[in-house]
Amino acid sequence: MNYKIVYSFAATCLLLGLSFFHLSGNSHALAHQSSRAEGTSENTPQCGISLLPRDQSKVGIPGEAITYTLILYNHHPYPDSFFLDIGLETWKTTPYSDQVGPIPVGASVPVTITVTIPNNVDWYSSASVEVFARSVYHHAQVSEPARLITQAYAPPHLSFEPASLESIQSSGQIVTQTLTLHNGNGIPLTYQILIPGHKALYNWLTIVQASGTVASNQALTVPVVFDATQDQSGIFTTEIYLDTNDPDQGHIVIPVEMQVVDLPERFYLPVMNK
């Protein structure tokens, strides 16, 4: 038997086994390190700063100051203070304080940002601004932006008068009354007035301006015509439907009544001369 060949073969197998064990151990270690790194990146931002939530949206009327609250987190292994930086702004944006801190390790504090809607903007106009937190001690460390979106919007607010429409008139007479619509400090109020049922049944009633728009903080007078030229004496009733884009008063029912009376004939007495 050739002992040299056997010895060489055994040594080669031993070296291959050790190499495999070494490579296997390294791969497990690398996988463990990668798993730890992935876990860290998911839970903690690389810069050690968080400004949350990332997105907020609010609405308000022109001239109003809208307040946002963000939470600033310090993930650094040491206490730190932070500057609050405002990105490109269309509407005036002001932090409650330009600097926050020091914040303890792992702690958080609320920060307040105010966005003022200009007085002269149109309804539905909007503006977006980004806010950043920057470390006082390490200026290169900046948080991901928190975006604030503000829109000039407020719902219309309807008020009207009178609550019901009534007319007492003689046969053959035409009387015009008014329904006044008011809009509060919101977007334009759109309205439509309908008379339910067949028109032939209510030919005594006419809405002159049955649809339209009422601007913010304005009022509009709608003529309502009572026509007794085609009817005999009696009481005529119906309802009119006032539909608007006011979310709280989208459908209003207004009672309407016309009372037609016969006037007594006039008698003229002769004038006696003295």
Topology record:
Elements: H1 3-43, E1 49-52, E2 55-60, E3 65-74, E4 80-86, E5 93-95, E6 99-103, E7 108-116, E8 126-135, E9 146-152, E10 158-161, E11 165-170, E12 174-183, E13 189-194, E14 205-207, E15 211-214, E16 219-227, E17 234-244, E18 251-261
Parallel strand pairs: 2-9, 11-18
Antiparallel strand pairs: 1-3, 3-7, 4-6, 4-8, 5-7, 8-9, 10-12, 12-16, 13-15, 13-17, 14-16, 17-18
Instruction: Report the top-level CATH class of the largest domain.
Output: Mainly Beta
- State the CATH topology of the largest domain: Immunoglobulin-like
Give the name of the CATH superfamily of the largest domain: Immunoglobulins
Based on the structure given, which CATH architecture of the largest domain is correct?
Sandwich
SS elements, strand count: 18
Strand order, largest beta sheet? 2-9-8-4-6
Structure characterization notes:
The protein folds into two domains: 49-152, Immunoglobulin-like (Sandwich), CATH 2.60.40; 158-261, Sandwich (Immunoglobulin-like), CATH 2.60.40.10. The protein has 274 residues and is mainly beta. A five-stranded mixed sheet has the order 2-9-8-4-6, with no helix packed on it. The chain has a five-stranded mixed sheet with strand order 11-18-17-13-15, with no helix packed on it. It has a four-stranded antiparallel sheet with strand order 1-3-7-5, with no helix packed on it. The radius of gyration is 40 Å and the shape is rod-shaped. A hairpin with a 6-residue loop joins strand 17 and strand 18. The longest helix is centred in the N-terminal third of the chain and has 41 residues, at 3-43. The protein contains one helix and 18 strands.
